[in-house]
Amino acid sequence: MTLDVSCQIERGDFSLEIDFSSDARITCLFGRSGSGKTTLAEVVAGLIRPRSGRVALDGEVLFDDSTGLSIPTWKRRIGYVFQDARLFPHMTARDNLLYGPRRAGDPRPDLEEIVALLGLEALLERRPGVLSGGEARRVAIGRALLTRPRLLILDEPLSGLDGARRGEILPYLDQLSRAGPPILYVSHAVEEVARLADRVVLVGDGRAVGAEPPDQAFDRPEAETAAGLSAPLSILDGRVSGHDPAGCATRIDLAGTPFLSPLLDVAPGERLRIVVDARDVALALTDPIDASFQNRLPMRVASLETRGDGVLTRLEAGGLTLKALVTPQACRQLDLTPGLPVIALVKATAAARYA
Ligand SMILES: Nc1ncnc2c1ncn2[C@@H]1O[C@H](COP(=O)(O)OP(=O)(O)OP(=O)(O)O)[C@@H](O)[C@H]1O
């Protein structure tokens, strides 16, 4: 799937300039409340007409103001799951699932498969009034999937759910990301984006320009502002190489660099993504072998940038990139310059697992 959006939107006093292209399995629209994420999603779905520009999915033009073309929503084959599940209250979960429109000639979608994918078996005969928020969202996602969409739009699918309910639904979203259609995922929550996104479109200050890998997107000051972060995040993809025999730590291979995290319930060989706050990375010129840092990574300074009252230091080693936010004093003391070999010091406990 390739989604190309290049258009201008006006909605009352609000205007948004959009220009991105993504062929990722999960593209996240990330920005703070009111930045225009839902508006952008509604443009893709055909629920809002842009003032000008063009929208195309897999090369098929859905909207083009220069030719006057605007394919209606129902012909776009895009599934849209709204922030509120919008299930029919008088129908069972099963009947809600089977309600979605279907194109003539399309093979009937496999209800069993989608029920299994989203863990809906026990819910089928229940009405929405006796479903939890998370269960209702899963039924709404199932209903959208049963229309065989080319693209699934999930607008803040975890909003309003407490931590436990979010934790319940996230593994289903992981499964969906592997087995379902491509997803346009709207969120203002950094945990969700860091866990799920293949590409991130930052929406803010009237702009949504470029779809970037999450680590790159979270390098930007705009992302820090949108996420309410005090420092950039490193979003690192790795594979579990094993668990500490004493059972208190997990070994992860980060692009060839071994890394120790707290014990994670992830089998060896599985992929995962961890997040490290740039403030949790210290630097040394020689290896402090008697310090408690479990990760002492030989790296090289790639670049330095003044960020607020700190210095954002980007580090590289093989395929691994890591960010450290240090004080200007520390920068002077170590005489940090691009190319300098350093040891990056990261406590195992500083690594959070998001996927
Ligand atoms: N029907 C409308 N008419 C005029 N302005 C609107 C309309 N709907 C939304 N807006 C405005 O458009 C802007 C973007 O709203 P939108 O819902 O797209 O933001 P969002 O990033 O999805 O926010 P949230 O995360 O809170 O859902 C806001 O300033 C909002 O007030």
Automatic annotation (TrEMBL):
Full protein name: Molybdenum ABC transporter ATP-binding protein
Organism superkingdom: Bacteria
GO MF entries: ABC-type transporter activity; ATP binding; ATP hydrolysis activity; molybdate ion transmembrane transporter activity
PANTHER family: ABC TRANSPORTER I FAMILY MEMBER 10
Gene that produces this protein: modC
Domain annotation Mop: ranges: 290-355
Keywords: ATP-binding, Cell inner membrane, Cell membrane, Membrane, Molybdenum, Nucleotide-binding, Translocase, Transport
Pfam families the UniProt entry points to: ABC_tran, TOBE
Keyword Cell inner membrane: yes
Organism field: Brevundimonas mediterranea
Residue intervals of the ABC transporter domain: 1-230
Claim: NADP is one of the keywords in the record: no
Cellular component aspect of the GO annotation: membrane
